Amino acid sequence: MYAFEFERPRTLDEAVAALADDDAQALAGGQTLIPTLRQRLAMPGKLVSLTAIDALRGLSASGGVLTIGAATTHAEVAQQTDYPALAKLAGGIGDPHVRNRGTIGGSIANNDPSACYPAGVLGSGATVVTNRREIAADDYFTGLFETALDEGEIITAVNFPIPDKAAYAKFDQPASRFALVGVFVSKGKDGVRVAVTGASEGGVFRWAEAEAALASDFSAGALEGLSVDPEGMIGDIHGGPDYRAHLIGVMTRRAVAAAG
Amino acid sequence: MSVGKPLAHDSGPLHVTGAARYVDDIPVPAGTLHVAFGLSHEARGTIAAMDLSEVRSTPGVVAVLTANDLDRPVDVSPSAHDEPLLSTGEVHYHGQPIFLVIATSHRIARAAARRARVEITPRPAVLTIDDALEAGTYFEGGPVVWTRGDIKSALEAAPRIVEGQIEIGGQEHFYLEGQVALALPQDDGGMAIAASTQHPTEIQHKVADALGLPMSAVRVETRRMGGGFGGKESQGNALAVAAAIAAARTGRPCKMRYDRDDDMVITGKRHDFRIRYRAGVDEDGKLIGVEFEQFVRAGWSLDLTPPVADRAMLHADNAYFIPNMRIVSLRLRTNTASATAFRGFGGPQGVLGIERVMDHIAHELGMDPLKLRLANLYAKSGKDETHYGQPVKGFELADIIGSLAESSDYHKRRAAVAAFNAENDVLKKGIALTPVKFGISFTLTHLNQAGALVHVYQDGSIHLNHGGTEMGQGLNQKVAQVAAEGFGVGLGRVRITATDTGKVPNTSATAASSGSDLNGMAVKAACDEIRGRMVRFLAETHGLKPKSILFKDGKVHLGNQRLRFVEAVQECYMGRVSLSATGFYKTPEITWDRVAGKGHPFYYFANGAAVTEVVIDRLTGEYRILRADILHDVGTSLNPAIDIGQIEGGYVQGAGWLTTEELVWDDKGRLRTHAPSTYKIPACSDRPAQFHVALWGRKNHVPTIYRSKAVGEPPLMLGISAFLALSDAVAACGEVYPALDAPATPERVMMAAKRVAG
Amino acid sequence: MTAPVTLSLAVNGAVHEVTVPPRKLLSDVLREDLGLTGTHVGCEHGVCGACTILIDGQPARACLTFAVQMEGHDLTTIEAVSEGDRLSPLQQALHQVHGLQCGFCTPGIIMTVTAYLRDHPDPDEVEIRDLLSGNLCRCTGYQNIVKAVIRAAAEIRARAPA
Question: What is the enclosing helix (H) or strand (E) of B496?
């Protein structure tokens, strides 16, 4: 491991100041970032821990919206009862150890193409709140490990409108338990959303055809005959593009069936 | 009685408190240095230039050595002298050590190694079995061929021919404790080594050669390993030798351990195989002849490939009498890490080959696979000989299978599986019963020897040492039970001590499942010797016949008189009786001509059988093991709890090999699955939902230690039933034979289900 | 090189001052600076679970944590699980029902399960599977580990005041 400085601010303002350095990097639970640093895929000069900032923690639900502080762990999200489909998604991330340390803010800031949360955020039509602005999920995820966040911008919370129906169906990459394919579906006042993670070379995406089909008939049967083009799907040691494309159809139908 | 009790592992209390020391936990003297390798980034080529200046200038780096800096050519191979510690100019695989760094910390040594600039002129790498066949890169000068009968006529005459091919992937050992060694220079120029190794004597030998010392100047100690599975038979040599060279150079203690990525990239794994088969059967499913071609991907050096590939040939019959046979074994040299020993040592691949044949034939003939297997089993009477000419004696597999079929409700469940499959379209179940017959003994005859050293101290405590190593398999516990039994005392008196080349010399690797067979007998011999001396002395001083003296229940019975064990020991000590002895054992009856492929290589066979039921999701390929039932033969168990643990662990490891454990190399010869985040070993949720394991309790027909049988490797092959249960479930998706390759990952299962459905 | 920092770490009920580089992993600090070698390093990828410790009572991987992150947190390692000289019910059960072979994964498993049983003394089979999903064992096939968890849970319930 190469050398870096470490800071652990107590307030958001201090964190913003600490992250003003060009080569500073925010550190949340570290469950993805620390292995990345070990492999030297990233080499920031300074790490700024966000876990001591009280303003970033906690969950609250009101007016049909669940607000989750960015430094809230997966284990904490798994325990909330306001949004059961999201609780189930969080409870299926990694293993208990990862869920005790990993945070929602860290996960969506990193935007790993195989992470579960991006599907939950995009599939719920959530809003990402930062120290500067609010970003709609549709605008937030911009590509593989890419987001709309600017340098020094810190996620403070995520607002989830709680849908009428929702479910997440995931096919695990068995060794890491990241999603080989994960599909989050929801049906709420703004319509149906189908968000797919793990599969595309472009990162999490909405499956428009499936959303259209489900808009008029929210049932697994409505998806019969729909398929995803393997072109642009990830092909790696864990599965080929055809397999992933095929799994998207299967997991979407299963998610819809589970959402009821 | 100590022997036969289900006593817990002797180190248990240390393990559960974190107090048990592995090599990396041993407190080291201040000033201890750390060693790391710089590795090749090409699979094949010639080193054109090496700039190590930045490595050398890294703060904390003490020295950097290449092959040219060594005093003499240093080899770390187990026998063939074809593995230089550091590349001598040519590189043969991606990850081959090229130079070594000695630094003040492990992290500094590793980080500095990455700062090297090594230019390698690449050459076309031979990576796959097909590459090697095309390039003609064979070890041992070409194919090894064994034949029995007249295979050509047999296949011509056979009413039915079934043929096909199976690809069998390798397997990473994934011992939880990685490779590690610590070298401590001695004041007299000697070297003391603590290593995580199954083969301390080989480490001693290699270190002595590397330092130009006699073996007597090198002492190797191994208290325990955090798992071995064959991966620490030869693969620890490089670390111990590198640490010793560094220690000799610097005069300071030196330690070397591989990080997990390096461990997976550098060290060898189970050999991957391709097995092509052509079998002739009659309409009743009786085998007339089978022809096998076994393509073995050996990697860049010979390592243990010859005996591994031999053992695959020796197990190409598994449990079946095959009157005509031809086995062609091609040991292929490739530019990949040199494949090595792994639990089963080629046996599993050989067994999977014939079990695949049985599965395929049953499908073609529309016959119940169990019926087919039973029809071809070796005779219980002992009249049959294997294809290499060894009579199959004491063969109770038909009874074991019968008993297992009943206890597991095999026939009823097979019908229930068929009924389930008729009703369900997405989920399909499968069930398979497979046996194993595994030959026990090293096929290199001279390795079948062992030594022990036992001291009885004047306070009645017993110091026990033997040549075997403890890697979790409970060898020390079993052997201690033998020693306690030898003196009729409780286990509390017996002190188990670290394996030490200074106490017991010229040991064989703890391998081939032979640990308790060989070392148990050697310990018994040592105990018998001391007890014999005590009996002779006590008989004389007490005026008794030696026969009337018994060691039992912590007492020495002298006719009507009883002495506490310690009192008897003190009498002997005062009478100047030597209370220390070595013991030695060599396995009788074994002979083997490996060129002809004929002889009696195994002292006996260990047997067992397993039934596995699985369910697959044909749309995703996901599967679960619903239930596994095992009946396994360990003779008269020395310790049933330890034996059952070996069976459960072996089954799960075998099932892992054939299901989720997939090794992937890219087209540059780089191992892509070099971490547990990409290489999937079984987790708790992968074990069978229901798991029933029982021991076949009859005694071994040959006089092994208390008539027990070896247990380390054979149960791994019971995992084949999981693979064939998956094949059975896939077969339920259509008419065509699934011809699954291993490992049967979910993607393969889904694709096979699609193919089968047409 | 970034200068080493001096930290106060609360480990097993005692506060230790260590001076370490910010990049040093908690697993290395525990093992090298505090001599607590019961925390094993198996994979250094955050997968095998051999390095599991408790951070504020919850299982986490010491190999995925920098020591500098741990100021103000309460750390517990395998060395502090026994009740004085007495093994905890879980330690006792893993030993007695043969829930270990090579023992390398054992401390990590004990940390994970100890935390869980404290809050959930009656786990069912499904809970145990998920509970142990972050701890790999290469020897036992898990059967006896699960048995030991069930036995320890029963023992803990029997001890608890009614």
Answer: strand B494-496
Asked whether this chain's domains B273-443+593-757 and B449-586 adopt the same fold, the reply is yes
Task: Grade residue A165 by pLDDT with cuts at 50, 70 and 90.
Answer: very high
Residues of chain B contacting residue C45, judged by C-beta atoms under 8 Å apart: 260-261, 675-677
Q: Where are the alpha helices (DSSP H) in A141-240?
A: 208-216
A17 near B CB under 8 A: no
Count of other CB atoms within 10 angstroms of residue B258: 21
Q: What angle do CA B128, B134, B140 make, to 5 degrees?
A: 80
Q: Last residue of a domain, which of C32, C48, C79?
A: C79
Domain count, chain C: 2
- Supply the pLDDT for residue A182: 98
Q: Are residues C97 and C52 in the same domain?
A: no
Place of tokens 């599993």: B348
CB contact under 8 A, B620 and A238: no
Given this model, what pLDDT does residue C162 score? 62
Domains of chain A: 5-49 (3.30.43.10), 54-161 (3.30.465.10), 165-259 (3.30.390.50)
What pLDDT, on the 0 to 100 scale, is given for residue A4?
Answer: 86
Least Cα separation, residue B425 to chain A (angstroms): 14
Task: Delimit the domains of chain B by residue range.
Answer: 28-124+173-266, 273-443+593-757, 449-586
d(Cα B196, Cα A5) in Å, to the nearest integer? 36
Q: Do A237 and B662 touch (CB under 8 A)?
A: yes
ipTM given for this complex: 0.98
**Tokens matching residue B318:** 């598994």
Contact B17 C82 (CB under 8 A): yes
Task: Judge whether residue A185 has pLDDT over 80.
Answer: yes
Residue C84 lies in a domain: no
Residue with tokens 């070993």: B681
Tell the CATH topology of B28-124+173-266.
Answer: Aldehyde Oxidoreductase; domain 3 (3.90.1170)
Nearest CA in chain A to C50: A97
Q: Is B733 left (phi over 0), alpha (psi -120 to 50) or beta?
A: alpha
Q: Which residue of A has its CA nearest to B746?
A: A239
Q: Give domain B449-586's CATH number out of 3.10.450.50, 3.30.365.10, 3.90.550.10, 3.40.50.720.
A: 3.30.365.10
Same domain, yes or no, for C112 and C144? yes
Domain assignment of residue C105, given as a range: 89-159
The CATH class given to the B273-443+593-757 domain equals alpha beta
**C21: Cβ contacts below 8 Å, ≥ 6 apart:** A3, C1, C2, C4, C5
Whether residues C153 and C114 share a domain: the answer is yes
Considering the candidates B163, B713, B735, B747, report the single residue annotated as catalytic. Answer: B713
Catalytic residue list contains B713: yes
Residues C9 and C72 both lie in one domain: yes
pLDDT, mean of each 10-residue run, chain B (758 residues): 92 98 97 98 98 98 98 96 97 98 96 97 98 97 96 97 98 98 97 98 98 98 98 98 98 97 98 98 97 98 98 98 98 98 98 98 97 98 97 97 98 98 98 98 95 98 98 97 97 96 98 96 98 98 96 95 97 98 97 94 98 98 98 97 98 98 97 95 96 96 97 98 98 97 97 94
Query: Could you write out the DSSP letters of every residue in A92-119?
Result: TSS-HHHHHH-BHHHHHHHT-TT-SHHH
The answer to whether A90 touches A57, Cβ cutoff 8 Å, is no
B372: exposed, middle or buried (C-beta count within 10 Å: 0-12, 13-18, 19+)?
buried
Q: How far is CA B335 from the centre of its chain?
A: 24
Per-residue model confidence (pLDDT) at position A1: 59
C134:A98 CB<8 A: yes
Question: What pLDDT band is residue A47 in, cutting at 50, 70 and 90?
Answer: very high
What is the C-alpha to C-alpha distance for residues B450 and B508, in angstroms, rounded to an integer?
7
Q: Which residue of A has its CA nearest to B617?
A: A250
